[in-house]
Amino acid sequence: MTLDVAQLDIIQLNVDGLDVAQLDLKSGVGEPTIPLAPSALTATIVSDVAIDLAWTDNSDDEVTFRIERRIGAGAWSEIASVATDVVVYSDTGLTEDTQYGYRVRARNLAGDSSYTSEATATTLGLQTILNRAEALWHASNYSGSGDLLDEANSHDAVVTGPVFLVYDGTQYMRLTGITGNYASTPDSVALSIVGDIDLRCRVALDDWTPAAITRLVSKYTVSGSQISYSLLVRTPGTLQLVWSTDGSALGNEISSVSVSATDGDTIWCRATLDVSTGDVIFYTSTDTTNDHTAVTWTQLGATQPGSATSIFDGTALLEIGSRNIGTIGFISGNVYAAQVLSGIDGTVEFGYSNVSFVDGHVDKVRLGELWTLMWHKGFAPSTVVLP
Questions:
Q1: Which residues face 108 on adjacent strands?
Q2: Which of 58, 317, 365, 376 is most deeply packed, by most CB within 10 A?
Q3: Residue 156, number of CB atoms within 10 A of its CB
Q4: By the 8 A CB rule, do 15 and 7 touch?
Q5: Residue 66 pairs with which residues in a beta bridge?
Q6: Where are the beta strands (DSSP E) in 114-265?
Q7: Which letter does DSSP use for residue 313 in this model?
Q8: How many CA atoms lie within 13 A of 41 on its CB side?
């Protein structure tokens, strides 16, 4: 069919906003084609009542993008459309603590494209916002602007120091792998072990093949030649026990195999040193208890043979998550328990289990040690006496 000028004018009035190519299609110059589907849809939580959408425009002939939403696994409904080349949309007025699903398709005169893959997001609940605000309150510093509730609600605050996390039923100390973030207790007679030693730590590392050596339990300060002992995780994921006989010269053994763990897994790590032979044995366990006496241990690789040795009685701090007074070897992850035993399967000279750094309090820590959780940059450390 051929349209005259009057007919073209009528079509142009009725489809105001369509480009010339689309008018040509209607006037018989070409056949309409369905637009290419958009892709890479993302849904980003903004607050308790808002989610932002973004997608990739793969077509050059769409007229609109049509946006559909559903709650949970419910039915889809169209909630909005945006003009050609617009690739973002803010969905507001939502219900807190609710999962929403989204999909988008392109439309022109020929019809609708296929949908994007579904993108989902769950709006923040009030408790989540309060928890984040509390975390920010305890953090040594954070980026962003505005008051704490605004920061937590807007989801743009980045905590850069360790925090006292809100207790959720799982007790642990969170360390963030940043300079100066560690926990320590002063030297004591009990920690001055010169004979057989047994070091244990239950930890969930963010990376079990860390970019740098990660210190689990250390009594190790280079300054003043005060090196005694240290249990650490090396970059290949192997365990290493390091000790000194005189405060500076090092003895060490490395496990023959790496710890079998996926990033974020919680693993018991253990090393024993028999000073009469110098033999070192490494162990791991995936047992979920924090009670080290109830753990079933599996030897990690071969026994590492040595020769008779001893351990230096130094004055360094005992540190969790670092060495050298919080200057190197930082843990990025959760620490659930740690013990220092005098003798293999011997006396617990330092140990905690069921530690809960909850709103600044801890419990069930042995021997009444003074325990300090160091924060990042410019803030005084939080010091508590443990029962």
A1: 111
A2: 317
A3: 14
A4: no
A5: 81, 105
A6: 119-122, 142-143, 158-159, 173-176, 182-185, 197-205, 214-221, 226-233, 238-244, 250-258
A7: -
A8: 25
Parse the chain into domains and list their residue ranges. 39-122, 126-159, 173-385
Element (H, E) at 134: helix 126-138
Residue range 92-124, pLDDT digits in tens = 999 988 999 999 999 999 999 999 999 999 887
What is the rounded distance in angstroms from the CA atom of residue 341 to the CA atom of residue 191? 9
CA distance 258 to 251: 20
* Residue type at position 123: T
At 324-361, the pLDDT tens digits run 988 899 998 888 888 999 999 999 888 765 443 333 33
Cβ atoms < 10 Å from Cβ of 28: 10
Predicted structure pTM score = 0.56
Q: What pLDDT digit, counting tens, does each position of 31-50 carry?
A: 779 999 999 999 998 888 89
DSSP SS3 for 24: helix
Q: Compute CA 44 distance to the chain's CA centroid, rounded to the nearest angstrom.
A: 18
> By mean pLDDT, which of 29-38, 270-279, 286-295, 303-312 is the weakest?
29-38
In this predicted structure, the answer to whether residue 164 has a pLDDT above a threshold of 70 is: no
In three-state secondary structure terms, 101 is strand
Tokens matching residue 177:
């792998």
Identical fold, 39-122 and 173-385: no
Query: Which fold is adopted by the domain 39-122?
Result: Immunoglobulin-like (2.60.40)
Q: Is the pLDDT of residue 150 over 50?
A: no
User: What whole-number distance in Å separates Cα of residue 319 and Cα of residue 301?
Assistant: 26
3-class secondary structure for 345-376?
CCEEEEEECCCCCECCECCCEHHHCEEEEECC
> Do residues 96 and 48 touch, judged by C-beta distance below 8 A?
yes
Enumerate the H helices of 3-145 as residue ranges.
Answer: 5-14, 20-26, 126-138
Q: How far is CA 256 from CA 218, 236, 265, 307, in A?
A: 21, 11, 20, 18
The architecture (CATH level 2) of 173-385 comes to Sandwich (2.60)
Q: In the numeric block, which tokens belong to residue 33?
A: 């084609």
